[in-house]
Amino acid sequence: MSIKSGYFKQHLQIDLTKGTAERQTTADAFIEKYIGGRGFGAKLVWDNLRKHDFKIDPLGPENLLVVAPGPLTGVYLPSSGKNSFVAISPATGLYGDSSMGGGFGIELRQTGTDILSVTGKAPELSVLFIDNGETTILPMPELKGKSCLEAEGMIKERLGTHAVRVATIGMGGENMVRFACVNTDWSRNAGRAGMGAIMGAKNLKAIVVRGHMDIPVYDVAGLMAEAEQAFKYMEEHKYFKLWQQEGLMNVIDYANEKGILPAYNFKDSVFARHDQINGTTMVNRYKIGDSACFSCSMCCGNICLVKSGKYAGTVVEGPEYETCAMLGPNLGIDNFAAILSAARLCDELGIDTISTGSIVGATIEGYEKGILSLSDLDGREIAWGDEDAILELIQKIAHRQGIGDILADGSHRIIENWPEMDKIILQVKGLEQSAYDSRASISMGLAYATSDIGAHHTRAWTIAKEMEEGQNWTNDEKVDTVIYHQKVRPLFDMLGVCRLPWIELGLSERHYANFYKYVTGNETSLEELLGLSNDIYDLTRLINARLGMSRKDDTLPYKVWANPPLTGPNAGKVIGREDFQKLLSLYYQKRGWDENGIPPAEVEKRFSD
Amino acid sequence: MSKKLTVIPEQCSGCRICELVCAIKHFGVDNPKKAAIRVLTTYPHPVVRMPIVCSQCKVPACAQVCPSDSLRWIDGVVQLDEENCTSCYKCVEACPFGAMYIHPDYDLPIKCDMCGGDPECVKKCPKGALRLIPEAALGESRRLNNVLSYSQMKEIEFYEKGEKKVIRYAEVGKEEL
Fold it and tell me: pLDDT tier at B140 (50, 70, 90 boundaries)?
């Protein structure tokens, strides 16, 4: 079988140390097996690890950063605006990836590029400009210390055009904050796993793209018909309008009702003043417009403006649920305007709102419990809901000032510095936990523990199902559901599309197999695609295993075992260590990995090409 | 044709579905850079998402500068005479809205032809930001909004079948001039 369409078969390889840009033709066998996006990234990162004998410093020049859209990115179908950043993560030292929405991915594809990979380190702060077929590395030291928004503006001015897409880092990335993100379209971020820090370490301030090539599609008429069906299904869904109106902010009320909303660094899982910071409040008092990624009818992005008070004039795209929960209730903040201000600050600085919210929350609790002293905090007190102190601390993290220098290195360094903080901070493998409390949902705990990039919710999101099923849900069903999610979800990142139409509106997976067929001309069935998707989960597990990770690392934050939520429907609930270990063993068994969580030798053979 | 393709930027989410379906309809390819409508976005000050498309002016600036007389307003659409066009792009430069486009694959400029009266972009816009409105009705909704938000209105609350309601009214002759 050969690839009929859907790809340019071009891999653009940049070596910043040498200052070279080379285009290589991608082999059909590689394309068929790894599909795109996260699949391409995982394989290239694996190859690079083998080349370096599994010794890679995430912030060293040898760490390969892969930027890859998928074959469906930029195609007329629901929410096709995604592309992945993949590398060894500076937060965990293990496999890492993060995807971004907006319009960057499609523009990158339109330069005739399926994969962009960057290695080395530029001698001075530079910008990579891919202008259709031409690639240049432009030294732009004047961008030093500029925020993501400022940098994007300055780059456009220097290039004399607004018709480019920019993926840039802010001070967070430049200062190699281990949870720095890559920002595009001013407010869309590849947020997790510290991809921005890798760009900073490479002296790469931004990747700028401008392309005008046709996106290759095998059967345009077939695709159109399939896309029409999918769009129509979504439009008729009873929650479609709610999604357009509130986006992910509608989750705040749900999470509070179910008792899974982080409050006060997960001391609690409900927030008394949740109605001050929920979707309704946003729509009624702050929202001034919608924002969508490429080819998306759901437009989950909200544009908010603070119209009065001390944050008046603050404009931000967002917040979405995670940002609002982690920078709001998790820090004891009930002022929506302050959340917007913090979200905007994180966009400017280019740091992840989940990790930032988690680390600031842990800092407040650490100080409250006396683990951190006033002098540790550079003499500046901080408390729940203290907006000024919190905004200041966020600045200090991105600029690595005072205590910010330690906090910027993430959970591992914080625990190394103050061992007692291990009981306070919520993290797995060094990545801070997302805004869903797992204490009442052991399957969600399993999902966090076995996620390849650390405690992130997008690998498997089983919490709602477990809330529905309650006590009736057997261990077998829990493990099967986690594995099913981990098996399906990589496919979306590999194809270069958003998974929200599937998760939230129940758009059938079958559509995606058909989209793939019409775009590439390949008659691959959904089952086969899911097999390839599941392979990626095996591959990233293998990468982590070879980097020294095993069962001992598939664990959960201390609080999940020891500190139940204080109030709400899940008050008093924790996950039992033994129950968890039992579930973990069952998970390994069903995965076909050994008791220690290591995939068998047969798995490695599959990726030895 | 007396209907006008109208843009309501406040409704636009910037998803660019209009660009995609326009290019597919006219060129059969998935390439938003071949569309006759493009969404321009500015952020954060001001925040605007606005599709830019030909207004089909009755006295078109593009036609006025065309040296080969290839652009004419016929039956509600400024039509390009493809045979006659010399691809000098004076029209692209002259359009006060920047609503004509160039793509390196083609010599001819790209402009909106209203899809023969049933624009694809209007049908596919998921936000209702693009509408086909009879010329005579243009401005209607703005007029209504303007009246409803008239600042000197007074409000009273009242109950109708037990339900609390608000009525707004303009009091005559009480305003100080």
Answer: confident
Pair (A407, A454) in one structural domain:
no
Query: What distance in Å separates the CA atoms of residue A68 and residue A82, rounded to the nearest whole number?
Result: 9
Share of chain B above pLDDT 70, in %: 96
Where do the domains of chain B lie, and which CATH numbers do they carry? 3-139 (3.30.70.20)
Strand order in the sheet with A182-184: A134-139, A126-131, A204-210, A165-168, A182-184, A188-190
Q: Is the pLDDT of residue B1 over 70?
A: no
| CB-CB neighbors (< 8 A) of A186 in chain B | 43-44
What pLDDT digit, counting tens, does each position of B142-163 carry? 888 888 887 777 888 899 899 9
- A177 and A262 in a common domain: no
* A425-448 pLDDT per residue, tens: 999 999 999 999 999 999 999 999
Q: Which of A214, A215, A286 to mutate to test the interface with B (most CBs of B within 10 A)?
A: A214
Q: Does A290 touch chain B (CB under 8 A)?
A: yes
pLDDT at B177 over 70: no
Domain that holds residue A465: 442-505+524-606
CA A201 from centre of chain: 19
**What pTM value is reported for the model?**
0.95
Cross-chain CB nearest to A292 (options B10, B14, B105)? B14
Instruction: Give the Cβ contact number of residue B12 at 10 Å.
Output: 27
Are A259 and A390 part of one and the same domain?
A: yes
Count Cβ atoms below 10 Å from residue A596 Cβ, excluding itself.
11
Half-sphere exposure of A172 (CA within 13 A, CB side): 34
Same-domain status, A105 and A166: yes
A229–chain B Cβ distance below 8 A for any pair:
no
**Domain contains A243:** yes
**What is the rounded CA–CA span in Å between residue A348 and residue A575?**
38
Say whether pLDDT at A555 is over 80: yes
The domain boundary, picked from A371, A390, A425, lies at A425
- Same domain, yes or no, for A76 and A117? yes
* pLDDT bracket for residue A252 (50, 70, 90): very high
- Alpha-carbon distance of A427 to A178, in angstroms, equals 14
Both A407 and A312 in one domain: the answer is yes
CA distance A215 to chain B (A): 5
Q: Supply the pLDDT for residue A30.
A: 97
- Domain match, A546 and A594 both: yes
Report the domain count for chain A: 3
Verify whether the Cβ–Cβ distance B31 to A299 is below 8 Å: no
